[in-house]
Amino acid sequence: MTRQRGFTLVELIVVMVIIGVIAGVLVLQLRPAMQSYLAIRQRANLSSQADAALRRIIGEVHTAVPNSLRYSLESQQTQCIEFVPTKAGGRYRTAQDYTDANQPKGAALVPGVPVTTFDTLTDVDTSSVVHDDRVVVGNVNRDDVYAGTNVGLIDKVAAGTAGVARSTITLQAPTTFPAGYEGGRFLVVPNAERAVTYTCTMPTSGGTGTIVRVTGYTPNAAPWKTCPTGPAILVAKVSDCSFLYHESEGATQQSGYLQLRLGLTDGDESVKLTMGAHVENVP
């Protein structure tokens, strides 16, 4: 007869106690490392979101109409910046081509003189610039582009005459652009986004604030007194934000400096980033 061997109840209890002690020691050793890993990943994610949001704003400001950036402080919890975006631009003909004195060629744009058609000296993508887009010339004063005093409504863009112009822009009505501008540059503003506002709303505590991008509205001649809001959230979990814009002093504000600060909070983790950028204001 074969004798069967096994574990006694006491032996099983002893083994379970030993395994429990080892597991407890391992948990105590591994838990801080796991918590640290999760915290670092959470902070990295918040930093990535904040960096992407700030770079998005600065990237759009760099391509905006010069002198169109303006700042509004509604309260300590709400502030916004507004600017006029662009989709294209180039140089226009400032005078006719007099190579042949008997037959001057080209349609010129002369500020102070009504114009319906003018030639460009740089290529304009006829597929991207469409009917009802707007052309802006010489935005020397900040509010001109908002009031529409230097804005023409585009009817069509066609290929220019060989040897004379790269493209020809036709406006929907005769337009007189303000006199005194000699830069020879034009910008195209999309009709769907005649202005863009970034509004930051931050809470008194916690990370429940947001930065939203608002567009598709008709801009006002005066800056915002009450910052607009909308459903297009650029970044959430905002606990702190600050928009500061300083223009250079002097008769011609040829440059400015935009400083953005953004803080995000998620649970017990928080990050705060500051980013600045020079703003070119030469039309």
UniProtKB/TrEMBL annotation:
Q: What keywords are assigned to this protein? A: Membrane, Transmembrane, Transmembrane helix
Looking up SUPFAM superfamilies in the UniProt record yields: Pili subunits (SSF54523)
The cross-references to InterPro entries, in alphabetical order and at most eight, read:
N_methyl_site, Pilin-like
Q: Pfam families under this entry?
A: N_methyl
Q: Give the highest taxon in the source lineage.
A: Bacteria
Q: Name it.
A: Prepilin-type N-terminal cleavage/methylation domain-containing protein
Which residue spans traverse the membrane? 6-28
